[in-house]
Amino acid sequence: MEQTQDCKTYVLHMDIPLHAKCILEILEQSGFEGFIVGGCVRDSLLGLKPKDWDITTNATPTQVEHIFKSHKTYSIIPIGLKHGTIGIKPKDSEEIFDVTTYRIDGEYKDSRHPSTINFTNNICEDLSRRDFSINAIACKIVDSQNIQNYLDIPLNIKLDSKSETTECIIKKYYNDDLLNNKKETYQVKRYCTCTMKLYDYHNGIRDLIAKNIICVGNAQTRFSEDALRIMRAMRFASILPFGFKLHYDTKQAVIKLFPLLNNISKERINVEFVKLLHGKYVSYVILEYECILLSIMPILNNLDKSQLFLNCVSLQYAPNDTAIRLSILLYSQNYENTESMLQAHIQSCLYELKKLRFDNKTIQDTLKILSCFRYKPTNNSVSIKYFLSKYDKKLLWQVLCMHLSIQYARMKHCGDSTNEIGQTLNCFEIFKNIIKNNECYSLKQLSINGNDIKNISTKLGKTIDGKQIGDILNHILLSIINGHISPIKNEIFQEVMNYVDKLPNK
């Protein structure tokens, strides 16, 4: 067991889910300890809203199961019994709270999982096995006491000077209603403010304030035990607010031991990589740890240094769309030269993304963006409608977002002063107006269908087949896009009659 420094304790007021409070109280009433622990404590201290709330206790899994089976308002979910975890699901909520017994991990033999685990009654021993000091903070409800070392939430942390990088002019086009996306609906969670006593054995508060990511104990030991922690360290540096950095010893261990990631499943690396890719500080992290990025995605070794740099800095201006961010990372101007070079690059990207276990939709979306990136933003509404007729509005939005991100990076970091950005913004505005005014660009928008064309041809004494119907519909759509006829139903029917009338009799 590694020696730890004396525990620092603080008292604070924390907003926690009412169900989490009830679970903690039930454990205490049953004669056991109950702590909120890990990422939810860290995020609360940073002023973020935690997505998951983890609870740890000295009750064994069997005891936890017995305690909550007697409470009819909860369901028991055996989600991780071999690791000492029981899921507790309130019957009036979809949320599941993980309740895990304090444990000590045995020897790690596969760079990922302990060969054995042993339960313990000591919260300090449980926190000592965790990855980073900022994740090794625990707190429990207290009724009342003399408040000493009172801690405010959120912590008073200075904003990193590099944190606000995406200009409002770009954000405007990443957060509009072009795609008419439905907002996600979340179940309303009931929160309550509790007086909590916080236990900090590993200086997690100090490291949060200093914006340091530091391993608990020896960094090389932590990463040798579980190499996925290397990806987690980079992910936290990317996603946490204020601009967190890896402490010197932790950084050196990451650089030395990253080859151990070869022992980790691609699925697990994918999960961490996608989260990292969406972080606010992703550009700084992957440039600083370029060697790890290149080991995860070897295809990037084919890019020259200037192209890779441009791609990396472009990510900080991109919207939170996985396919767009992957497209930016994989982009190379050289592959735009010929169709054969582009298709060869697309095939290489397909192989790389499959190898990294991306889902089929993300792969297809990414490849479509790369395939269409040669489409240059234009002020010509006809050209925009042609693109929309061939593809769809989401793809055009993605392609324009990729253009804008790269153009902005070129201007900010490469001294490019061309007017490409203005052209792209104008294209966005025309695109928005097309959607807003419901201008016709797709067959689905036509006020005529195949049956109407059949009826017209019958009245004119003509017999037409399915292919001819398709040709007529495409002719009508292109005539509307080019402004030769209006989308008014009467004009469309008249155009169809003229077209059919010229067809030879069969």
Q: From the alpha carbons, calculate the radius of gyration and give it in angstroms.
A: 29 Å
Mean pLDDT, rounded to whole units? 90
Distance between the termini: 90 Å
Structural class: alpha+beta
| Unreliable stretches | none
- What is the count of DSSP helices, taking H or I runs of 4+ residues? 22
Query: Percent of residues in beta strands?
Result: 5-15%
Indicate the percent of residues in helices.
Answer: 40-55%
**β-strand number:** 12
Shape designation? elongated
How many strands, which pairing sense, and closed or not: the largest β-sheet? 8 strands, mixed
Spatial ordering of strands, largest sheet: 1-10-9-2-3-6-5-4
Summarize the helices and strands and which ones pair or pack.
Layout: E1 8-17, H1 18-29, E2 34-37, H2 39-45, E3 54-57, H3 61-69, E4 74-80, E5 85-90, E6 97-101, E7 103-105, E8 117-119, H4 123-127, E9 137-141, H5 168-174, E10 191-200, H6 204-210, E11 212-213, H7 219-225, H8 228-239, E12 245-246, H9 248-257, H10 266-277, H11 282-288, H12 290-296, H13 305-314, H14 322-330, H15 339-355, H16 360-372, H17 381-390, H18 393-413, H19 420-436, H20 450-459, H21 466-481, H22 489-501
Parallel strand pairs: 3-6, 11-12
Antiparallel strand pairs: 1-10, 2-3, 2-9, 4-5, 5-6, 7-8, 9-10
